[in-house]
Write a structure and sequence with these properties.
Layout (H helix, E strand, L loop, with lengths): L4 H6 L10 E3 L4 E4 L4 E6 L2 E2 L7 E2 L2 H14 L8
Length: 78
């Protein structure tokens, strides 16, 4: 399930208030600055810092390469 484009335009990281990368196939939103991933459960973003996942270097690089390869853009321009 993909997120509504209007919602994506306003979604920001609750920690640093910056834009996120949305990976629909992985049902997640990713903050590359803090290396934090937020789940999307049943089409609803779980934007709670305590429920987010910190990713390691390898996963961070994989997500950045995936974003570049698939044309994933930030939720908004900072």
């Amino acid at each position: 399930m993909t997120l509504d484009p209007k919602l994506l335009e306003i979604l920001a990281c609750p920690d640093d208030k910056g834009p996120l990368l949305y990976f629909a196939d992985e049902a997640s939103l990713y903050n590359p600055r803090l290396r934090r991933r937020y789940a999307v459960s049943e089409g609803i973003p779980v934007m709670l810092v305590d429920e987010s996942e910190q990713v390691d270097d390898a996963e961070h690089e994989r997500l950045l390469m995936l974003a570049e390869a698939t044309g994933v853009r930030p939720t908004f321009e900072a």
